[in-house]
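quick one before i forget lol
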Amino acid sequence: MTVMGHVDHGKTKLLDAIRHANVQAREAGGITQHIGAYQVTTEVDGTERSITFIDTPGHEAFTAMRARGAETTDLVVLVVAADDGVKPQTTEALNHAQAAGVPIVVAVNKVDKEGADPSRVRAQLTEYGLVAEEFGGDTQFVDVSATKRIGLTELLEAIILTADASLDLRANPAQDGQGVAIEAHLDKGRGPVATVLVQRGTLHVGDSIVCGEAFGRVRAMLDENGDPVSEAPPSRPVQVLGLTAVPGAGDNFLVVSDDRMARQIAERREARERSAQFASRRRRVTLEDLESALKAGEREDLLLIIKGDVSGSVEALEDALLKIDVGEEVGLRVIGRGVGAITQDDVNLAMASDAVIIGFNVRPAERAGELARREGVDIRYYSIIYQAIDEVEAALKGMLKPEFEEAQLGTAEVREVFRVPRIGNVAGCLVRSGMIHRGSKARLVRDGVVVSENLTVDSLRRFKDDATEVREGYECGIGVGYNDIKVEDVIETYEMREKPRA
């Protein structure tokens, strides 16, 4: 059985508490890895039952992720804080669950806090059709506390009882595996990694699978504790290694007979997607001159390509941007999306279709940034989702104000990492381009993905001497007040310059 936790700031703590309690019964080490979905085992009436939890963000920008989760799961656990009561995200999550037609169990969290009023939560939810059993309804409400570990066993029992009463859960473990990708990302050492939930059949190591436009042979599978598993039966979440690309969140996967068939299916899907992307071509435009292009009648819409560090963030950003309401005169279309660094293929697509590229926590790969600057392709970098939404909305409405523009000062490649007492890690670097200035702003980039933002070059040395700046081609030691530095990382330094709107 698969269930999903929804909303409330304490929801993740509650799900982790359930997982801790289950893991500690068999392993003193506790949790080693969190993959967004995990399975726990509980005993009800002497029978051992397995429950798979899917953790979805409560942030309002992740509406699409919660909607997809409600469609994927068998049962929804609606987590509501006893001290806050019903919030807008609560009603939104409830609407997704009711639209999917799945049973609902309400977990009233934070009952140990001062000012908590579980009865108020029960009264509020009656307005939305969730009537507690003690009020004569059929919805189970359980009072819990994530921090004090109160009511966890009762919550698991409520989930089992509700499922037995409302669902007929059956799956054939003998057939080929089928399911859905919950999340996916690009790992430096392991390549594309997808967290998949098996819904029918059994997935085995060595199976040939197709997931969206990605394909490959399952090289290894890891459970929520990072331990290798050889097979994944129905309702089992696992991380799959061996795909050729990063699938999209929500893509369905299926097992096929051999690698050749998997490749053919994926290539056909990719060809259809590429044809759709190149179907409409426009003259290139930037967010700054969008208003003048609209007034001149040269454009009727804004085309975007979105790249992010994980597929869930890409999906959330796309969903939020498409909700921008600017009337019927102008539209917004996302013609490309993906996970990982911005590549030359992304820039070429932007050139061909006159699109703007949005990078969320990612940077251009080698030569892609130079190609974009040479061809005049507009690339926007964001680490806060609402900043991207506000700027795109302002451009569409013709309200884009003067702004500060990021000007890159220099880049340095990490060649060695030194541990300095009372200071932390210092990066031994070779300046690749521009100039590194002491006191300038910096970011740490690993394989095209931003690892840490808003850093500062606190120390800069040439051998044993302090330096105020180091030019291209010279070696130096750089301290940015951040310890998770690895060899081959890139330190980018920049400054913010005011850029008046043209």
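fyi The first helix runs from residue 11 to 24.
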